[in-house]
Amino acid sequence: MKKFAILVLAVTVAALAGAAFAAAAPRATPIKFAAKMTPAAEVPPQTWKNPGASGSFTGDITGNKMKWTLKFAGLTGPTTAVNVNLGAAGTSGPVVVRLCGVVCPAEGTSTLSKALLNDLRAHKLYVNVRTKKNPNGEIRGQLSAG
Predict the structure, then answer these.
(1) Which end of the chain is flanked by fewer CB atoms within 10 Å, N or C?
(2) Domains of the chain, with CATH numbers?
């Protein structure tokens, strides 16, 4: 019986020590990223010329969770979609993360796969804001981590 009590005590102490260590362990440092969105960065170029549009996209990633903030001004009309696309600067690519549509919040949370995190580090992701007059994109910005 004494051996059993000692074993239970040892397991309890080990579990409490592990819990205390986990609570004291530092959290992962978020990856900060940003993009300045302009009409000049659009590929292909705007259908409806609007050089006055602008925007910014900022956020941080902890683990695979991306918390972001989106701002834009001077668009030809309401957004039809805002997405993160895969593609290097000067190229267009497929949508990989849908951020919002016609009703576009200023902030949100999305999930990124490990492959997309690697693409972010390699500067292969961009944010694209679409409108009815510019269905391929009105403003765009290449995401950069740092």
Answers:
(1) N
(2) 31-145 (2.60.40.200)
